[in-house]
Design goal:
alpha/beta; Rossmann fold; 2 domains; six-stranded mixed beta sheet; 8 helices; 12 strands; globular
């Protein structure tokens, strides 16, 4: 039995187990299973691997996409460039890190007419973690300038949520939420954006996929912005992870 799974904490919001179970059933893959492994601390990873020596691969979610990297033997080129890992292939006791968030987001954006039909120049990325790094990696390939937003200033490329109040509608085209805010069960939470400056010129992409319509998307859509959730990205990155595990 080939065994795969997801590490992160908490994992109650995750659709990954359902996705892979449906994939295995739909494609007649009878010799594989997928489990959730909630780790309260990334230092528990070696023990997890010891307890489950048959693991062939892992997905990695919040908050360990960067913290997991010191536990890996090697990184592929994209994961190294992004500085974050969301997929681990396990072969002969060696752990190799990959970033399929990049693949999932890029393919999802290419399939979004609102994104492809506009000339975008400046994106605001909410969050500074591993998912945010993957978003910036993708957007900067298309020469879209990225500004990270967090509670406190992290770098020259970042601002605080308070700083957003000084922006006008012309200062940006795209907002990407790479934080867990709004994820089930905390569906009444939302990044503190100045929604009044949003209008039909703006695109808002929320990496959160549970619920399908977050409070962020609902409020942005009410101002005329074109919105999209992260379910398609989840599915695309999961398929990319499966391909990596089969190599």
């Amino acid at each position: 039995m080939r065994r795969y799974g997801l590490i992160g904490y908490p994992l109650g919001h995750s659709f990954s187990k359902r996705f892979f179970e449906e994939k295995f059933a739909g494609e007649g893959i009878a010799d594989a299973r997928y489990d959730l492994f909630p780790l309260a601390n990334i230092r528990q990873l070696p023990q997890l691997l010891k307890e489950h020596p048959g693991l062939c691969g892992l997905n990695v979610t919040i908050p360990y996409k960067q913290a997991v990297m010191p536990y890996l033997h090697e990184l592929d080129e994209t994961a190294r460039a992004v500085g974050a890992v969301n997929t681990i292939r396990i072969r002969d006791g060696r752990l190799t890190g990959f970033n399929t968030d990049v693949i999932g987001l890029e393919q999802s954006l290419l399939q979004w007419p609102a994104f492809m039909n506009r000339k975008l120049t400046h994106a605001i990325i909410l969050g500074t973690g591993g998912a945010a790094k993957a978003v910036a990696y993708v957007l900067e390939k298309w020469a879209i300038r990225c500004t990270f937003v967090s509670r406190s200033r992290k770098s020259r490329q970042s601002i605080t949520y308070r700083d957003l109040n000084a922006l006008s509608a012309r200062d940006f085209d795209l907002i990407v939420n790479a934080t867990p805010l709004g994820t089930y069960p905390d569906v009444h939470t939302c990044p503190p954006l100045p929604f009044d400056i949003l209008d039909e010129r703006h695109l808002v992409y929320d990496l959160v996929y549970n619920p399908a319509e977050t409070l962020l998307l609902r409020r942005a859509g009410s101002k005329g912005a074109t919105v999209k959730n992260g379910l398609e990205m989840l599915q695309l990155q999961a398929e990319a992870a499966w391909k990596i595990w089969q190599v």
